[in-house]
Q: What sequence folds into this?
């Protein structure tokens, strides 16, 4: 991470504050009455099985979806009414890469840098590509890149505008040891620079190396929170597979 | 306002670049337009008198169905690639996303219409190279795109998108179609502003109203 | 509105319909040139105006819904659209049955006729958007957008169809609806208006109440899920 990658947005309070957040789709609850804080300068890992509500929570935090009930403050801004500020302060990388397969990584990043209103977009695109170690692939179409490389470029996209809060949905999925090491490095760099990272994972062993806070989601409810230092991956695994509460 | 325009032009430039590289939209839509125009040849026996009276109607029916197809593609491509979220994440006014896509749609439709002019000449001996005809066509295309871009952003998320877009779009765009066909007929009859002007004004007023209104409501369409 | 109110409204509507039937078939004189078919006029005109009212109500509550996000507004818009589709359908059928013997054509594409048809289609689109939306919340929002955009096109449809009709001098014009009305006819027409408005109000109230119940059931199901 270069100097410029350090977050620059002024901030107050928590990086992320959810109060009584619920989200329903038709007759399914994705999130039920979740209260959760993420602190500046730290990493928060969301654990949970598929369908536990991790993705929904991250999408709510990124102002991609509006909660059915409750309030969300991201980087000190209420998503309701200040969605533009929330968007400018957060970087989000989800399951899809959000990249155009027929453009090159360089073209993709230049496009997003311009769209985000980043100063000197060409230089910034080259810079993040260098940071994620994708400069050699910068001129190839995304379609032809390996999954691991696409993921690096996807994360580079989320970092383009130097977000204060980085949201990563399953960043470790499908990555080899080297790729996972890269994700760890990015996450640590953002947190060390005073920013915050919220990421989701379903394997406790992988994300525990980050040594931050954790939260366990089960069936859309917050089942437990704590510091990684005060728990072991096995304990988290036990929390994850605890029998689902009667609905 | 400047920021909105800048973001809209960024999206537009990206769409143009993608289209120049993949050429997947223009040619498929153009092929469809040709087939429609070709089929019409056999629906009527195009005698010169008949063409003089129904020519503008044939042209616009072919164009409007082509427009439905083309507009469905614009958001569908973003939706299928999963990049719609990339646009929604950007810290830009939602109007910018609408205007960017609108510019892409207008460009696509104008390109298809222009490339169709020779086809109408050959198939129906119908020369559309007429200043007033082209003025009406451009204004009407903006109106069609203004309504169609908004509704295709809705239709793309639904199960019945192929049906829903024309169902929502065609009734609302009827005034543009009436204006375009009537204005075209006047223009091809050799009328100038005296005959075409009223229709042109109606279409331009429609364009303005729906550009403004659609920009305003677009955020309600995108929200999840 | 409570059940007792709605029952009262139903009784009033029922009595009005009975009186209206008598006025239309017993009291109003037979029109000289058109004969008995002219009696359809007492249905057609009030129904068409009520349909337009339904559209205005749906559009206004849709604006209100997008601004305030209150379910009340959405229920009102939805009830107006559903009842409106039925009224439009009746208006179009009575219009066609009346126009055929009188004007020699099933439908007259003048400004009013075209507008009626367009609004009917927009209402159908409105209900389709709700049916096909991925979730109910987006269905509410998108149908509201549909109603607002539909309302904005009204003056354009009216003007375009009017000018377009003006270019077609071969259009058959029969005896006009206005001008030649006798006193009894006018009275019947006015009474018919009142009747259909009350009937419309009853149907909206009923549909609104049903919608509230449907939403309560959905919420219970959600709470149980």
A:
């Amino acid at each position: 991470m270069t100097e410029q990658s350090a977050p620059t947005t002024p901030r107050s309070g928590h990086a992320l504050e959810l109060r009584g957040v619920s989200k329903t789709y038709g007759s399914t609850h994705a999130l039920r009455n979740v209260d959760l804080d993420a602190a500046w300068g730290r990493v928060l890992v969301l654990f949970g099985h598929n369908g536990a509500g991790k993705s929904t929570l991250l999408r709510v935090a990124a102002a991609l979806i509006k909660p059915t009930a409750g309030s969300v403050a991201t980087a000190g801004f209420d998503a309701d009414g200040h969605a533009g500020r929330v968007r400018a302060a957060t970087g989000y990388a989800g399951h899809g890469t959000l990249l155009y397969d027929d453009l090159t990584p360089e073209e993709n990043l230049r496009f997003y840098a311009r769209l985000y209103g980043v100063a000197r977009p060409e230089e910034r695109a080259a810079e993040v590509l260098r940071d994620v170690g994708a400069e050699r692939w910068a001129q190839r179409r995304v379609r032809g890149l390996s999954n691991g490389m696409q993921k690096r470029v996807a994360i580079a996209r989320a970092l383009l505008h130097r977000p204060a809060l980085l949201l990563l949905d399953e960043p470790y999925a499908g990555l080899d040891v080297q790729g996972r090491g890269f994700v760890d490095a990015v996450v640590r760099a953002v947190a060390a620079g005073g920013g915050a990272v919220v990421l989701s994972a379903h394997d406790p062993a992988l994300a525990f190396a980050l040594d931050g806070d954790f939260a366990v989601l089960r069936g859309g409810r917050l089942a437990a929170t704590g510091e990684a230092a005060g728990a072991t991956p096995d304990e988290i695994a036990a929390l994850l597979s605890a029998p689902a509460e009667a609905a | 306002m400047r920021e909105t325009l800048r973001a809209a032009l960024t999206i537009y430039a990206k769409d143009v670049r993608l289209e120049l590289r993949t050429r997947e939209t223009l040619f498929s839509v153009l092929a469809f337009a040709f087939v429609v125009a070709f089929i019409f040849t056999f629906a009527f026996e195009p005698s010169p008198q008949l063409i003089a009276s129904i020519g503008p109607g044939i042209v616009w029916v072919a164009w409007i169905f082509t427009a439905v197809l083309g507009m469905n593609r614009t958001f569908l491509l973003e939706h299928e690639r999963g990049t719609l979220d990339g646009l929604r994440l950007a810290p830009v006014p939602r109007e910018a996303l609408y205007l960017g896509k609108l510019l892409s749609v207008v460009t696509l439709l104008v390109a298809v219409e222009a490339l169709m002019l020779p086809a109408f000449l050959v198939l129906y001996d119908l020369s559309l190279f007429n200043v007033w005809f082209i003025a009406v066509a451009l204004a009407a295309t903006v109106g069609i795109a203004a309504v169609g871009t908004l509704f295709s952003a809705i239709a793309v998320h639904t199960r019945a998108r192929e049906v829903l877009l024309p169902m929502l779009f065609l009734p609302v765009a009827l005034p543009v179609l009436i204006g375009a066909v009537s204005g075209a007929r006047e223009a091809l009859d050799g009328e100038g502003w005296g005959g075409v002007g009223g229709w042109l004004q109606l279409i331009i007023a429609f364009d303005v109203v729906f550009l403004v209104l659609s920009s305003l409501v677009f955020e309600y369409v995108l929200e999840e | 509105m409570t059940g007792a109110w709605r029952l009262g409204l139903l009784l009033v509507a029922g009595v009005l319909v009975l009186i209206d039937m008598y006025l239309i078939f017993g009291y109003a004189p037979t029109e000289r040139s058109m004969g008995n078919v002219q009696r359809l006029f007492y249905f057609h005109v009030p129904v068409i105006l009520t349909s337009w009212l339904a559209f205005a109500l749906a559009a206004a509550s849709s604006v209100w819904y997008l601004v305030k996000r209150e379910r009340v507004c959405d229920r009102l818009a939805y009830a107006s659209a559903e009842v409106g589709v039925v009224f439009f359908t009746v208006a179009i059928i009575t219009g066609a049955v009346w126009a055929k013997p009188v004007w020699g054509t099933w439908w007259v594409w003048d400004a009013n006729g075209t507008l009626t048809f367009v609004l009917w289609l927009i209402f159908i689109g409105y209900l389709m958007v709700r049916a096909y939306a991925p979730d109910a919340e987006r269905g509410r929002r998108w149908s509201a957008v549909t109603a607002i955009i539909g309302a904005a096109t009204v003056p354009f449809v009216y003007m375009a169809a009017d000018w377009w009709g003006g270019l077609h001098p071969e259009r058959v014009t029969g005896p006009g609806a206005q001008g030649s009305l006798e006193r009894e006819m006018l009275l019947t027409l006015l009474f018919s208006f009142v009747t259909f408005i009350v009937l419309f109000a009853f149907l909206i109230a009923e549909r609104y109440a049903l919608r509230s119940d449907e939403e309560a059931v959905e919420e219970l199901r959600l709470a149980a899920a």
Summary: The first helix of chain A runs from residue 54 to 61. The two ends of chain A are 45 Å apart (CA to CA).
